[in-house]
Amino acid sequence: MYMEKSGAPRRKPVTAPGLRAMKEKGQRIVALTAYDASFAVLAERAGVDFVLVGDSLGMVIQGQSTTLPVTVDDMVYHTRMVARGLETALLVADLPFMADRSVEHALEAAWRLVAEGGAAMVKLEGAAAHHLAVIEALVSRGIPVCAHLGLTPQSVHAMGGFKIQGRQQEAADRLLQEALQVEAAGAAALVLEGIPTALGKIVSQRLAIPTIGIGAGVECDGQVLVIYDLLGLTPGRRPKFSKDFLEGRGSALAAVQAYVEDVRAGVFPGLEHSFD
């Protein structure tokens, strides 16, 4: 176990049902995207609830222009590394592009992420009929699923780029219906990315499962950021929804702790990190 021990009481491991219980209690969920053991340890020590190994590693780690080249092997490798740095945070791993091209392929990829990588949940983009079938198949086999709607990076070409979704009423209504559909299919949580704050609030209020926002406003049940964005390490222009929490602080741990505190208090994201 790659983890520093201390005399502090050990918190109980966060589970998929535990996320829903947090929503029911009104406790905001803190999530962080990380790709290796060292950053996983920071997330664990800071009290992050939910660590996501995102296929964003294609852009952040590999230097790709999209997430599309990331393979199942890549995801298993990075998930296994992150698992070594965690003790109580829930470990979630992305199903990469086209891993869900059939139920059989999705089951194989998810099995590898859980059995080889150590994930406790897998994340799946989209709410088309085949996505819903995959969610149902995974859940029926005991693999919790986190859905992902809004700006879904695996659909970057269909969307015409990384563009905010749900601004028109028809698109907003469609996203809400998709959210209800993934919940009905058995998803345990839902990531909402790149949508207006008002829509994030409506979806969060309508669902029993927790919503985790990234560029979806402060009214979501939780928030997620890529740790490289949080620490100001991302080269070039940072996404609007991110914030450099390391600025003015003396360590990476202090930065992650500040992020945790701000999400719990409902002060991050602010208006300057959100979309209307």
Automatic annotation (TrEMBL):
It is found in: Cytoplasm. Pathway: Cofactor biosynthesis; (R)-pantothenate biosynthesis; (R)-pantoate from 3-methyl-2-oxobutanoate: step 1/2. The active site is at E193 (proton acceptor). Binds 1 Mg(2+) ion per subunit. InterPro entries: Pantoate_hydroxy_MeTrfase, Pyrv/PenolPyrv_kinase-like_dom, Pyrv_kinase-like_dom_sf. Belongs to the PanB family. Mg(2+) binds at D55, D94, E125. It holds the Pfam family Pantoate_transf. Transmembrane segments: none annotated. The gene is panB. Catalyzes the reversible reaction in which hydroxymethyl group from 5,10-methylenetetrahydrofolate is transferred onto alpha-ketoisovalerate to form ketopantoate. 3-methyl-2-oxobutanoate binds at D55, S56, D94, K123. Its cofactor is Mg(2+). One of its GO terms (biological process) is pantothenate biosynthetic process. SUPFAM superfamilies: Phosphoenolpyruvate/pyruvate domain. This is 3-methyl-2-oxobutanoate hydroxymethyltransferase. Its EC number is 2.1.2.11. GO terms for molecular function: 3-methyl-2-oxobutanoate hydroxymethyltransferase activity; magnesium ion binding; methyltransferase activity. It comes from Frateuria aurantia (strain ATCC 33424 / DSM 6220 / KCTC 2777 / LMG 1558 / NBRC 3245 / NCIMB 13370) (Acetobacter aurantius). GO terms for cellular component: cytoplasm. Keywords: Cytoplasm, Magnesium, Metal-binding, Methyltransferase, Pantothenate biosynthesis, Transferase. Homodecamer; pentamer of dimers. It catalyses: (6R)-5,10-methylene-5,6,7,8-tetrahydrofolate + 3-methyl-2-oxobutanoate + H2O = 2-dehydropantoate + (6S)-5,6,7,8-tetrahydrofolate.
